[in-house]
Amino acid sequence: MLLKVVIVDDEIKAINSLELILSEYCQNLKIVGRAGNVVEAIKEIQNKKPDIVFLDIEMPYGTGFDVLESIPERNFAVIFTTAYNDYAIKAIKANADDYLLKPVDIEELLIAVKKAQEKIQKPAFTDPVKESQVYSGQNHIPKKIPLATNEGCEFVNIDDIIRVAAEGSYSTIFLSDKRKVMVSKNLKEIEDMLQSSFFYRVHKSHLINLLLVKRLIRIDGGTIEMTDGSHVALSRRNKEEFIQRMAQFSSLSLSYLE
Question: Which of 15, 98, 144, 178 has the least CB density, counted as fewest CB within 10 Å?
Fold first, then answer.
């Protein structure tokens, strides 16, 4: 399947560099449009109807976010390419598929393209903004959160977060692929970023994904086993609320869980 691509950037060198990489490593992509500012970008996207848009942020006559806001029905994947890392959170809220810093790393670019292709090839690929709203039930809840690491900024699917453990002013995030990511944010900051009823503070030092709870073990007041086999202590004062929360996700009665 040949996918159409539009590249939006106010630097001709950046466009040429991206074109060169895509032509060499992504044979199933066809570049059908180029734009150097917001006005041109909107026209190219509307006329060429691309599958993937590589979008710069700071440009003449506005930003990449202005481009997206001007296209109400978005049925294409968006990969931001920018020299600035200050817009990561805003990119997530705009439901971007990835966020690459210039100079673009080839390996990171190929990973971003692969994710975009997989998304596009889904039978029910629709506007990602609407898709996110259906998933969450609320417009303001993101499906991904940005995590600042030593290497840069990693975008993590909220669904993949099993639990978060406090490490003083830091937090360790445990993911479903067995990876651990340490970030310089306390547990409350992570909780605020998630903004999801699926996450619950079972202990002062632990936040868990309720959808990935495996079982409740009645030992020492209560221990929760997660789907990755890890065990998290359940504080006594949070036990009742935890049980009520879990009852919402199953057909079990409260008396059974208690």
Answer: 178
Q: What are 16-35's pLDDT values in tens digits?
A: 999 999 999 999 999 999 99
- CATH number for the region 144-257 comes to 2.40.50.1020
Q: Which tens digit of pLDDT belongs to each residue from 91-123?
A: 877 888 889 999 999 999 998 999 888 888 765
Rounded to 10 deg, the angle between the 106-120 and 12-25 helix axes is 70
Percent helix / strand / coil, the chain, rounded to 5: 35, 30, 35
- What are the residue boundaries of the structural domains of the chain, listed by start? 3-136, 144-257
Reference 208, options 185, 234, 241; nearest CA is 234
3-state secondary structure of 180: strand
What's domain 3-136's superfamily in CATH? Response regulator (3.40.50.2300)
